[in-house]
C-alpha cells in the first residue's frame, strides 16, 4: 500500500486505486487507513480490475434505484463492509475470503 496524503475531495476521506491509497487529511485517522486497507484487500481478492467493474455496476444499480449518489455509494457491498469494520483494527487478521459477499 502506497499512501498519498492531502488530496482534495469534497465528501469522502479517501480513494483506493490499488496499490495507491489517496487520502484527504494530511494526518489521516487510523480508522480511515483501516477503511482503505479493507478496500485494498477486496481489490486483491478480485484481482483489481473486476473490483472496479463490480463497484461501478453496483453504484449504477443503486443510483438508478435511489437517485442519490451518496446513498448509492453507501449501499455498495465493498463500502458496507469497509464502513462496518473500519473501527475493528484486527478485522483484516480474522476476515474470511470474499467477506464483502455478506453485504450483497
Ligand atoms: Zn470506502
- Overall tally of domains: 1
Calculate Rg over CA atoms. 13 Å
Strands, count: 3
Strand adjacency order, main sheet: 1-3-2
| Ligands bound to this protein structure | zinc ion
Helix content: 40-55%
Residue share in β-strands? 5-15%
* Number of separate helices: 5
- Indicate the structural class: mainly alpha
Report the average pLDDT across residues. Answer: 93
- Summarize the main sheet: 3 strands, mixed
Could you please describe the fold and organization of this structure?
With 104 residues, the chain is mainly α. It has one domain. It has helices at 30-45, 49-66, 69-75, 77-85, 91-94; strands spanning 2-4, 14-17, 20-23. It has a 3-stranded mixed sheet with strand order 1-3-2, covered by helices on one side. Helix 2 packs across helix 3 (69-75). The two termini are 26 Å apart.
Give a quick rundown of the structure.
The chain has 104 residues and is mainly alpha-helical. It has five helices and three strands, in the order E-E-E-H-H-H-H-H.
Amino acid at each position: 500500500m502506497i499512501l498519498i496524503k492531502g488530496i482534495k475531495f469534497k465528501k469522502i476521506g479517501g480513494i483506493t486505486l490499488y496499490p495507491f491509497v489517496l487520502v484527504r487529511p494530511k494526518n489521516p485517522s487510523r480508522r480511515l487507513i483501516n477503511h482503505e486497507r479493507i478496500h485494498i484487500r477486496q481489490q486483491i481478492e478480485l484481482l483489481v480490475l473486476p473490483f472496479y467493474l463490480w463497484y461501478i455496476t453496483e453504484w449504477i444499480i443503486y443510483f438508478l434505484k435511489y437517485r442519490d449518489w451518496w446513498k448509492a455509494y453507501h449501499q455498495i457491498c465493498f463500502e458496507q463492509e469497509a464502513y462496518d469494520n473500519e473501527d475493528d483494527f484486527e478485522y483484516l487478521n480474522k476476515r474470511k475470503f470474499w467477506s464483502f459477499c455478506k453485504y450483497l
